[in-house]
Amino acid sequence: MPGMLQDAGREPRIGVYICHCGLNIAGVVDVEAVRESARFLQGVAVVRDNRYTCSEVGQKGIADDIKEFKLNRVVIASCSPRLHEKTFRTLMEKSGLNPHLLEMANIREHCSWVHYDDPVAATQKAKDLVRSSVARARLLQPLLRTKGQVLPEVMVIGGGVAGISAALYLGGMGIKTYLVEKEPSIGGHMAMLDKTFPTLDCSLCILSPKMVEVAECENIKILSYSQVEKVEGQVGNFRVQVRRKPRYVNEDKCVGCGDCVAKCPVKVNDEFNRNMGTRKAIYIPFPQAIPPAYVIDDENCRYLTQGKCKICQAVCQRGAIEFDQTDQTETIEVGAIIVATGFEPYDPRGLPEYGYGRFPNVITSLDFERLICADGPTYGKLKRPGDSTVPKRVAFIQCVGSRDQATGCAGYRLDGGTGSRGESTDPKPYCSRVCCMVTAKQAFMVKEKHPDAEVYVYYIDMRTAGKGFEEFYQRGRHEGIVFLRGRPGEVEEKEDGCLRIISEDLDSGCILDLTFDMVVLAQGLIPPGGLGELAQKMNLSRSEDGFLMEGHPKLRPAETAIDGIYLAGCVQFPKDIPDSVAQAGAAAAAAAVTCSKESIEIDPLGPVIDEALCIGCRLCEVLCPYGAIKVEFTDKGPKAKSIEVACKGCGVCGASCSTKAITMKHYTDSQLAAQVKAILEVV
Amino acid sequence: MESVRKKDVPVVTVLDPKFKYEVAREPGGENIKYCFQCGTCTSGCKVAELDSKYNPRKIIKMVILGMRERVLSGDFIWLCATCYTCHERCPQDVRIPEVMNALKNIAVREGYIHPAFRAQAELIAGHGRLYEIDELANEKRTDWGLTEIPQGCPEVAEIYGITGLFDLLSREVGGKT
Ligand SMILES: Cc1cc2nc3c(=O)[nH]c(=O)nc-3n(C[C@H](O)[C@H](O)[C@H](O)COP(=O)(O)OP(=O)(O)OC[C@H]3O[C@@H](n4cnc5c(N)ncnc54)[C@H](O)[C@@H]3O)c2cc1C
Ligand code: SF4
Ligand code: SF4
Ligand code: SF4
Ligand code: SF4
């Protein structure tokens, strides 16, 4: 609306609204005092306080004022703009004002909530913030919003049970979906599990039909052995660069006969079996893999590392082996993205007192799943790794790498005291949520195979909240599993490979000194490796725990702060299979809503380049984290050009430009300077 | 306060809810309220293995519950060998040996000093060291060509005076001098 743009030309007439937010703000901040402090600020035409500015009444009051006082700018001092900026921008638009002439001061999160114990200082800070918002509002300029097209296609990153479920929901709605998985097969961790709690159904028996469904769904395209390299654009129109690693086996020709495997001379540790068994250099991760094609591991293949062999090519009757395959980079355009890259198990070598990696009979819970699985290294026979004997006394230790706040000590256990968190060996402060049930399940499975085995679980608290979970825990106790309250300090190895644990049994008050044949560490769930880089590619935030941050912890659990990008499964926080699938449904629904729109309004943020000032120094080009500004040769010499679809409006270019040729829309130097100057004023 | 109904079964009827904050304010006691009673500290504690009176987890629980008298007057808080094993392993970063130091400091201000520690403090005040140098020792030193060591050590006594240690040593239960 061109009329809306002209509004700003007039002398600023600002309406200022201070919100009580019930008692959320007014309980700490003296709202009346803040209101009076704004009354005579330059440009202010009207000031009011509202119990709830976002309510129907509050909004109507502002609309009426805009008419009556001929307002052309609005300042609202209330909650975070993340919550209500959209509400108030819509209100401005309806009242005939450009939505970018709104300025919000956050006096709830930034004042009353953080300074709840100091009302006087909180009130002063609120006054300062309002004053600085008014100063900025005076200089705000109307901006034209552009409309973007929406591609009715979705990309799901990560092919675990969450990604698979999301892809199936979307495919079922007729939405074209790309499922990107970094491993040669989809399936994720669920494919590695033997049975699943609390019903003990076989994990692959329930997962593999879904995997087959994905392969057969005509709307889903699987990009296995692939990684996301780059993400550009915004909601409705993302351009994702995906790099596919060469399999060296043609997926369409390979029928999975396995002739090549029999002849391949190279044996290496099998990571799918947690390095407890071996596989060949040409292999299929597990029999039910999707796509059901073999793959050559280029780090170990004799031909690819030493230039001689090709035995597999000679034996393959289908001519499926293609050593001339190379990395393929593909750009895929989609309207929305679902991130479902799951978790990584905590590496207990970060707690050396428990001996993992030093004592062969100390294993982790994921190792246990492989050890007891019919397709595992022992064909489902429970044997301890040290000497292949059947363990008769098994101990489980809970919360390994979880619920651990010990920044100081945990830090210098391995990394020399930096206390850094984020490494796979750094213990985490949160509860990993599934491991109590995982142990209850595994302890039960030991009893199932060997009813006379002695099974002890060392725990701090047993957390079995979930449908059928408490009943399952009770069943375990009834089977004779002994639950000991008390976290052991140390595991010692004896000469025969058995393991001694000294612990305090809190309930009997005794110090227990017991010896076991095998110890299973209930490892926590931590953010998957590389999540930081992936998040950066998409401009996503991570919460303090390292997982991806949801749009709102209660109301937008499957969304992110970035429009058009959604979350499913453990990448948001550890959860079990039912919860991962439920979140996948929510993410798929949200992505489908986005894709069903005809067009989407785009925030017009980003750089404006003054060609007369730009000297083509390329500083901005080098610094822009999104490759969204490039220097091009024009008839006036080299000049920076903004690539609007890639720009995320971060402002790095504007701050870096050596000749001040770049102005950031909505965040101009003069607007920011006025804001800073006002906040520093002594009043 | 605390009364004993049955033999050996303490029945506690009054708790001091402020005690945990008091300990948390004392240097070393800052993290006490993080304890979630997992037992890791006691599991690896060598003193606990030798003497059932000492159980760091229980001491921390008693503080959190507010058994002020019982904790400060007990001799168990003096038993920690400050080996720091539990400090290294405690998943909640409670820093148990430092909590014990905090408790000892409060106890001394309240007039509770374990007799062994009082004896040590008095020895040092009198002799400047943990043991008395008698004439025999000095004779031996002279034989070996070493200088004699003076019997008392007024500087140490002076330090006691300036730092208020004499004052602390003479406190009565309840904290009055
Ligand atoms: C030992 C153990 C036992 C368990 N037992 C049970 C049980 O009995 N019942 C139950 O309900 N839950 C159980 N769980 C939990 C269950 O494993 C998880 O709920 C489930 O696997 C989560 O699925 P997901 O898809 O979110 O993550 P994941 O299974 O981790 O899948 C993530 C996928 O994304 C891929 N990926 C990662 N990064 C990228 C990237 N950058 N690009 C592309 N792809 C990527 C991974 O390769 C993987 O395939 C258990 C967990 C453990 C550790
Ligand atoms: S070429 Fe490589 S994959 Fe093929 S048989 Fe030889 S080592 Fe195995
Ligand atoms: S789920 Fe249980 S074992 Fe896992 S971290 Fe939480 S309390 Fe510990
Ligand atoms: S604001 Fe500048 S630096 Fe940031 S993404 Fe846009 S062009 Fe790049
Ligand atoms: S190890 Fe730490 S958290 Fe556990 S009982 Fe001892 S002090 Fe408490």
- Named CATH topology of the largest domain in chain B: Fumarate Reductase Iron-sulfur Protein, Chain B, domain 2
- What portion of residues of chain A is helical? 25-40%
Question: Total domains of chain B, how many?
Answer: 2
Mean pLDDT of chain A: 94
Q: Look at the helices and sheets of chain B and give the structural class.
A: mainly alpha
Tell me what you see in this structure.
The complex is a heterodimer of chains A (683) and B (177). With 683 residues, chain A is an alpha/beta fold. Chain A folds into five domains: 4-143, Rossmann fold; 153-245 and 327-343 and 527-595, FAD/NAD(P)-binding domain (3-Layer(bba) Sandwich), CATH 3.50.50.60; 259-315, no CATH class; 344-526, FAD/NAD(P)-binding domain (3-Layer(bba) Sandwich), CATH 3.50.50; 603-665, 2-Layer Sandwich (Alpha-Beta Plaits), CATH 3.30.70. Chain A has 21 helices and 34 strands. The longest helix of chain A is centred in the first third of the chain and has 20 residues, at 119-138. The radius of gyration of chain A is 30 Å and the shape is globular. In chain B, 50% of the residues lie in helices and 4% in strands. In chain B, α8 crosses α10. Chain B is built from eleven helices and two strands; from the N terminus they run ββααααααααααα. In chain B, a hairpin with a 2-residue loop joins β1 and β2. In chain B, strands 1-2 form a two-stranded antiparallel sheet. With 177 residues, chain B is mostly helical. The model of chain B has no long low-confidence stretch (mean pLDDT 90). At the A-B interface, α14 and β25 of A face α2 and α6 of B. One iron/sulfur cluster (SF4) is lined by residues 398-399, 402-403, 431-433, 435-436, 461, 463, 522, 524 of chain A. Residues 35-41, 56-57, 60, 86, 90, 92, 94, 96 of chain B line the site of one iron/sulfur cluster.
